[in-house]
Amino acid sequence: MHNNGNIIDNKFLGLFTDLYQLKMAQSYLREEMQTKATFQLFARSLNSHRSYLVSAGLEPLLDHLQQFKFSSESLNFLSETSLFSSDFLHYLEGFNFTGDIRAIPEGRVYFFDEPIIEVTAPIIEAQIIETIVINQINISSLVATKAARCVWAANGKPIMDFSARRTHGIDASNMASRSTYIAGFQSTSNVLASKSYKIPISGTMSHSYITSFAHEIDSFRAFVKSFPDDSIILVDTYDPIEATKKVITVAHEMEMSGSRLIGIRIDSGNILRLSKQIRSMLDEANLHYVRIIASGGLDEYSIKELVENAAPIDGFGVGTKVGVSHDIPSLDIAYKMVSYGERPVFKTSPGKETIPYKKQIHRVIDQRGLFKKDIITLENDQPAELNTEPLLQTYVKNGNMQKELPSINQIRDIFDQDFYRLGENYKKLDTKEIYPVVLSDKLSEMYNSVRNPV
């Protein structure tokens, strides 16, 4: 597997589970319940402007599961809680995931109420890993979807990930950088994420750098002296227009020494108006090659407004609002049992009904090569439609990896291909178009027969 950027000591990874998972696991062990159970992870529909989701987080999850064990230090801690029996702690001492995992590949577009991941394992194993499964997929898919919306809004203009400082912790920041890159961002400012995932790195300067100099132009000159081939100058510390005049002077000085300024960055104010004024100033100074980068609280909505109003912006830096998925900060992701041994399992509580059985998702492709609808079937059933492709693939069998995982750039390509084949009506930001996801007749019949027995 590729480097997952994890900074947690793996010897404690087994403790990353909710207490009630361990309590249930001890009870299963006491009751001699070792039968295999199947759980499925899915996202319940949101009352929001989200018509699709982007699969992300699978590789980090699989990597964590390979390392998911209970060290002697972890077992000592659990023993000190006085909650667990010696038999159960002895069981955990040899804990190792031995089950099967089927999943939608990373980068693929999926929809609400579809099984994203299916875990089949002895019930104790499948139960204990619930927390880490939800944790890894929730944030990654959430941020990748938000990033995809930004990329669509930018209409081909590059976007840089600036989210590291305001995401919810170091791991979340690294996962956000990975997820935004999968969904089409061009680079990240997060140095650790760049190293861990081989993501292109980018960065400019902050206002503190400029204010540390007595004169603004001196800060510009000092910076380009250190980075003659990689300088983007921030112009909104004081007066953006006056700062741009100084940038023009510095850019001409750079030309005299044989180098070129990459660009300027606007981080506040009326970005639409300022970008037009500054572009005009740069062009009049024969600095057509100097790019304008916009940042400062941007998201898909503000990017779309700037693009639609012909703002002469060459790229965007997007941070907080994508890193925490500001408008939708969480998905209602659930991990529910669908079978225990040969017995179908389901919930009937209103608003949280689940459908039993192992499943497959078949995506129907229309004559143009676009996505038409998804059909959820029983695992080994084939729908009547001819032009379909199954989404769930086997990644782990009996605890062993079954295939080599794609590189992050290959995952980007997967996303690009899927997003191209998703109808434009599903990409709109301010409306929610429901993509058709239906149950096969056979799955519906079997569900109805167990839900409403004669």
Characterise this structure.
The chain is of the alpha/beta class. It contains 16 helices and 19 strands. It has helices spanning 19-30, 58-67, 72-80, 86-93, 123-128, 130-154, 170-182, 191-197, 207-211, 216-226, 240-256, 271-284, 300-308, 320-323, 408-421, 441-451, and strands spanning 36-43, 53-54, 100-103, 109-110, 117-122, 159-161, 187-188, 232-234, 263-266, 291-294, 315-318, 333-340, 343-344, 359-365, 371-378, 388-390, 393-397, 400-401, 437-439. Strands 13-12-1-5-3-17-18 form a seven-stranded antiparallel beta sheet. β8, α11 and β9 (263-266) form a beta-alpha-beta unit. α6 (130-154) packs parallel to α13 (300-308) and α10 packs parallel to α11. The chain starts with 18 loop residues before the first helix and ends with a helix.
